[in-house]
Amino acid sequence: MFRFSSRVGILEIVLLTLMLSSLRIQAAEEYIRIDEYVAQHPEQRTVMDAFSRIVRAPAEPIATVPERPVRIAVIYPGLQTSDYWRRSLVSFEHRLRSLQLPYELKSFLSRPSVDTALQSQQLAEALQWQPDYLVFTLDIAPQSRMIERLIARGKPKLILQNVTTPLVRWKAHQPFLYVGFDHAQGTKLMADWMLQQINHEGKYLMLYFSPGYVSQMRGDTFAREAARHSRVTQVAAYYTDGDREKAYTATLRTLKKHPDTQMIFANSTDVALGALQALRESDRLDILLNGWGGGNAELKELNHQGLDVTVMRINDDNGIAMAEAIKLDQQNQAQRVPQIFSGDIKLLNKDQSPAELKKLKQQAFRLSDLPLETQ
Known about the structure:
GO terms for molecular function: carbohydrate binding. It contains 13 helices and twelve strands. By secondary structure, it is α/β, with parallel strands linked by helices.
């Protein structure tokens, strides 16, 4: 259980939405979807398929060990309930060790959306260390500007995580690798399931993350799918900064104003858990609610019938892909590294059998459930 302070109200959420909505409109359609990218670069399909086979196969130690350890800096918005970032880091290190690739790693953690200034400081500290590779992410405009400066520098080589859609304006100079899971694909899987549950008729609340990439790829994708059905209506939408308390407050206010709401689309784990707390307090677990990512916190609530549906990332493919890309680059085989690696996503609902769930967890967390000390 968690407690909420009284300082955050609906007014703050509304003001945040109004102030930043223009940024989101300007950001629309800046990204190239995976199918579109492959259509523009058909040669990438073969590279992507071959690389996916490497990720799913057992590790093969590097043939020629570098003269010095490879330096890797990781800057993650990992201070959140979702265990995606922690598992990514653990599986990444496990694979590096299995590849027998000597490395030095510095990791920096922050809260998503709200710690932009801290992320800038962390980036400066990381660059001062002069890493060979930098793992970063993209969600809000300030991060985009940081990344553009890195691309202009040309070093360190940039791995952009949790992003699988190249930016249009970076067309001539892209990062070394985009790696993660297709937000739009996962959202469409859930949208199909959720809309069927309400027979394509009813009202829903949209709980966005923050104005930026995740909200665009998840929230806007769901809104587009819902808009295909004339009897499905969005009654409210809020930016939450991925904050449980804001999601909780927005959900309570929406239920008071629109008690006939049938469905809530949450853009992240913390947002879903905040909404779930509000539904429990209001005795409204009849309202459909999703998670996003399928980490331990979500799977627990799926088992307890709190969440109705989520998409589960085969999480450890993410860290393995980063390690394998660095290995290939260190072997002067960068041409075998695709521009995009997008891992598998599976739809899970509250009726999933325990056997199916166990099998998926074993696959998704095959390295991140192991302590690093075992190698």
